[in-house]
Write a structure and sequence with these properties.
Strand content: 15-25%
Strand order of the largest sheet: 5-4-6-7
Helix content: 40-55%
Largest sheet: 4 strands, antiparallel
Number of helices: 8
Order of helices and strands: HEEHEEEHEEEHHHHH
Number of domains: 2
Number of strands: 8
Shape: globular
Length: about 350
């Protein structure tokens, strides 16, 4: 089954890249930009077909893909070249890939939730006997956690996560009977209650019936939760809490997906878990691609905006070669980083 899960993971990764590039391709076509090639995969082509002005290709290495637009980095003299299009068109084209990834992740989550009968809600259903936090000035049955210390509560497990990260005093925002209730400086510490084997905060969550609107809301909240996890990971990377050894590239991601499938209790659980992880990766790709780093879509948008500001101030058209050099340097660094991460991923496989 391991080989099957690896192939399934590779397929998912290929779909994520294809959907991303299709975002660029479809919006470029809608904006009248000439697309020379739309390829899924990298390396030698195993299938290709010329249709109109565009060559469609399926290439041997599934980790990659591209949408090659006319005049993508410099003016080729073609009036349909990318660089001569209005700024708003170029920004739409550049953002379309990440938008598609996010949308795909959201759709996958919704499809996985279609069979749900109920969701655990971050709403207090009852208190453990002896809990000191139940009072008219404190927590009450029916309170739904909205924020803890400024952090939005998307899922029930967010409550324990942010309470355990705190110092015992919290700023809480609750929804109580449709009204916003704020408890600033509310003191809470986990305690060992009678009959329990571990320390608890002393309240139990209830369930919410999974109607169609609720499924849509929980799908969106899960997507937002995934997005926050990505930002938290980036923050840890910037602050040195994690290093390159903890990062994973395509090889590591496929291995993680395969391991997720292997650890599942059944084949259906394996597919569910791999797709759930795939949705997280889709949203991860959406966010990472929009970072203002040269060679990434976000970096291209950022430099485009900077160029517009400079041209507006100087009233002179900047030579596109400077932006090309910046992106070329960024791509070289990015490829070097990917090579290091892939090398580490391969070492992890052997260890």
């Amino acid at each position: 089954m391991t080989v099957a899960y690896i192939l399934f993971a590779i397929l998912i990764f290929g779909v994520l890249i294809a959907v991303h590039e299709f975002g660029h391709f479809s919006v470029a076509k809608l904006c009248g930009v000439k697309v020379n090639e739309f390829a899924v995969g990298m390396g030698p082509a195993i299938w290709k077909k010329q249709k109109g002005e565009t060559l469609y290709a399926l290439r041997v290495v599934p980790f990659g893909g591209y949408c090659a637009m006319e005049g993508e980095d410099e003016d080729s003299g073609d009036p349909r070249a990318f660089v001569v299009q209005p700024a708003w068109k170029r920004i739409l084209i550049l953002c379309a890939g990440s938008f598609n990834n996010f949308l795909l992740g959201l759709i996958v989550i919704f499809c996985l939730y279609l069979g749900a009968a109920a969701f655990v809600s971050p709403t207090i259903e009852s208190f453990v006997p002896g809990c000191p936090y139940e009072s008219t000035e404190g927590l009450q049955v029916g309170d739904r956690f909205v924020k803890i210390n400024g952090h939005r509560i998307f899922q029930y497990y967010d409550v324990s996560d942010f309470l355990n990260q705190g110092n015992g005093v919290y700023d809480l925002v609750l929804n109580r009977d449709g009204k916003r209730v704020v408890l600033n400086g509310f003191a809470m510490t986990p305690q060992l209650y009678e009959g329990q084997t571990r320390e608890l905060f002393g309240f139990n969550f209830g369930y919410e019936e999974a109607t169609l609107p609720v499924k849509i809301r929980y799908s969106w909240d899960t997507a937002m939760e995934f997005g926050r996890m990505v930002w938290m990971g980036l923050s840890q990377l910037v602050h040195g809490e994690v290093g390159l050894k903890e990062m994973s590239g395509p090889v590591g991601i496929v291995d993680l997906m395969a391991e997720t499938g292997e650890n599942a209790e059944s084949a259906s659980d394996a597919v569910y878990n791999i797709l759930y992880l795939g949705a997280f990766i889709a949203i991860n790709l959406a966010i990472m691609n929009m970072l203002p780093i040269p060679a990434l879509d976000g970096g291209r948008v950022f430099l485009l905006l900077i160029t517009l500001i400079i041209e507006r101030i100087t009233r002179k058209k900047l030579d596109t070669k400077y932006e090309t050099w910046i992106h070329a340097g960024g791509m070289a660094l990015l490829l070097s980083l990917m090579a290091i991460i892939m090398f580490n991923d391969i070492l992890k496989l052997f260890h």
